[in-house]
Amino acid sequence: MGRAFDYVIVGGGVAAGYAAHEFVKRGVSHGELCIISEESVAPYERPALSKGYLLPKDPVRLPSFHCCVGTNEENLTPNWYKEHGIELILNTQVKSADVKSKTLLTSTGETISYKILIVATGARPLKLEETGVSGSDAANVCYLRDLADAERLVNVMQSSSGGNAIVIGGGYIGMECAASLVINKLKVTMVFPGAHCMATLFTPKIASYYEEFYESKGVKFIKGTVLTSFDFSTDGKVTAVNLSDGSKLPADMVVIGIGIHPNTSLFEGQLTLEKEGIKVNGRMQSSNTSIYAVGDVAEFPVKIFGETGRLKHVDCARKSARHAVAAIMEPEKTGEFDYLPFFYSKVFTLSWQFYGENVGEVVHFGDFSGKTFGAYWIHNGQLVGSFLEGGTKEQYEAIAQATRLKPTIKDLTKLKRQGLGFALSVSRKPPPSKPSNVGGSGQVPDKKPIYGWCATAGVILAVAIAAFAYWYGRTEGGENIVFDSIARLKNLRNFIQ
Ligand SMILES: Cc1cc2nc3c(=O)[nH]c(=O)nc-3n(C[C@H](O)[C@H](O)[C@H](O)COP(=O)(O)OP(=O)(O)OC[C@H]3O[C@@H](n4cnc5c(N)ncnc54)[C@H](O)[C@@H]3O)c2cc1C
């Protein structure tokens, strides 16, 4: 038994959702596109899982954060796929792929064939066992990658309220989960081997700002050490963590965020892999011309790096997916993926964005004892990376644009003095003209083409706000209903993007 499609996407996460949206925008016909996902729900905005999903009060739940709400576009509910004739095969793992016969074998025993395949299998969390520690299966040990993990984390968090939570890892997942655990009234200790949190991105000065902020919320940091083993109760729950510095910490729950590994195993030996990812060209096309790879799994040429990179962040998943679909549907009009790396995080009341590459000399600017500060990275005399905490929309757009333009920097002292003003002045200069390029966007060059949908989205948002205000007024009453409703909507958006 088998079915055949023109286009198949394996994986049903962020990149799959945005690819489907782009296919529809470019006129895919009913019955041409199929998505196969081992998850039980339609593609959703994964960042919500460590933010709004973990809130103790009014947490976000599906269907509110399906793709593409993260970019203020349509919410692609399961019905949307049905309406557009897209076959969404859920709860189904692709067990093997044969790139010669262009077929996939699924966990239900079905063979699905494709003309063009998009690999959007993302990544999986590194397990403790891969570092020589056992205990991942304990009922109070949590990872966070998908909806099932998030549901489990919520349950464990609720049953451990007031207790001790140990977070192993000081990266993205560790930092965002630690903040959520605090908000859920757990006593949190973060343990990681480095000298400071977010070691691959933050400078020591930036890290110390966030660490002090976390400490002010009650989080303890134990640095320069790693987990070596757990103590267990008779019913198999972890009761304490043992660290390489010899210390033992009592634990009611443990969250593990020690890194991820791209899901490439289906294609090992069949496609060229590089630095653990599937190697693709600037059109997101792999070593097999019928197969494209996007999102966390794709190792692609990153212009600003001058080499290939695998960017495990949501903006890249969205844009690389759109770019691949453009290259598939309109090859003659689609250039190379010209992507400006963009990462962000939102924890507590904090919010930062980073653009570009963090290499070379660092110039910090702004008020590190206040709310808005940042850093520039200067490499070979050019601005190559920018970080900003607490910025406005205009300021974030300015650092994005300045980084994309890579201005020459002669005087670091002057740059420090100018601070954010430098990015603002550079970004106000007219940008150099550039060929149209759907997915190859930092935020700023995207602005002109998206005026149309911005206007539409604005109207939709206004109607939604009015409807929400009306509903909220009827259900909760009170003054300033409209403003409160707008604030709530903004808050919701903050926690799902
Ligand atoms: C909790 C969390 C918070 C995050 N927060 C941020 C953030 O604040 N900012 C940011 O920039 N990035 C963030 N990220 C990273 C971002 O979500 C990822 O970069 C993005 O989801 C990658 O998209 P993707 O489609 O490549 O992979 P995914 O979204 O992981 O999707 C992969 C999909 O493929 C499925 N799959 C895998 N193998 C198979 C198979 N063999 N058969 C069928 N299906 C399969 C998976 O089940 C999954 O549905 C976060 C990630 C997590 C986990």
Short description:
The protein contains eleven helices and 26 strands. The chain has 497 residues and is of the alpha/beta class. The protein folds into four domains: 2-42 and 77-122 and 263-333, 3-Layer(bba) Sandwich (FAD/NAD(P)-binding domain), CATH 3.50.50.60; 128-260, FAD/NAD(P)-binding domain; 344-427, Enolase-like, domain 1, CATH 3.30.390; 455-496, no CATH class.
Overview of this protein structure:
The protein folds into four domains: 2-42 and 77-122 and 263-333, 3-Layer(bba) Sandwich (FAD/NAD(P)-binding domain), CATH 3.50.50; 128-260, FAD/NAD(P)-binding domain, CATH 3.50.50.60; 344-427, Enolase-like, domain 1, CATH 3.30.390; 455-496, no CATH class. Helix 7 (393-405) packs across helix 9. The chain is of the alpha/beta class and 497 residues long. 43% of the residues are buried. It has eleven helices and 26 strands. Strands 1, 2, 3, 4, 5, 6 and 19 form a seven-stranded mixed sheet that branches. Strands 8-15-9-10-11 form a five-stranded parallel sheet, with helices on one face. Strands 22-23-26-25-24 form a five-stranded antiparallel sheet. It binds flavin-adenine dinucleotide. Flavin-adenine dinucleotide binds next to helix 1, helix 6 and strand 22.
Q: How many discrete structural domains? A: 4
- Which whole number gives the mean pLDDT? 89
**Percent of residues in helices:** 25-40%
Number of helices: 11
Stretches with pLDDT under 50, minimum 5 residues: 435-492
> Structural class of the helix and strand makeup?
alpha/beta
| Main sheet summary | 7 strands, mixed
Name of the CATH first level of the largest domain: Alpha Beta
**CATH H-level name of the largest domain... which superfamily?**
FAD/NAD(P)-binding domain
Number of strands: 26
Form type: globular
What amount of the residues lies in strands?
25-35%
Distance between the termini: 40 Å
The CATH architecture of the largest domain comes to 3-Layer(bba) Sandwich
Computed CA radius of gyration, to the nearest angstrom:
23 Å
CATH fold description of the largest domain: FAD/NAD(P)-binding domain
Ligand list: flavin-adenine dinucleotide
